[in-house]
Amino acid sequence: MYRLTQNQISSELAGETVILNHAAGMYYGLNEVGTFVWELLKQKPMAFDDLKEQVMANFEVDEQTCINDLQQLLNDLAHEKLVETI
After folding, report:
1. Reduced to 3 states, what is the DSSP secondary structure of residue 76?
2. What is the pTM of this model?
3. Where in the chain does DSSP place strands (E)?
């Protein structure tokens, strides 16, 4: 399960999300799909497969591309300590 950490605040602007990492003092930006995933995780912790199903239901993407891109996004967010696994 993935969930957002407490080290951040975020705001959506014109379909994209800007995130401030308090601990690092860094800003990050998410595109439309990243924003969709971020909004899902703001609501509640979710498993990878549930996130994948939600992305595939809302965007035109093949399963393997979705898996690869979603894993990369979650790895990047975890590396920056913006999400964590529970």
Report:
1. helix
2. 0.93
3. 2-4, 8-13, 16-21, 26-30, 83-85
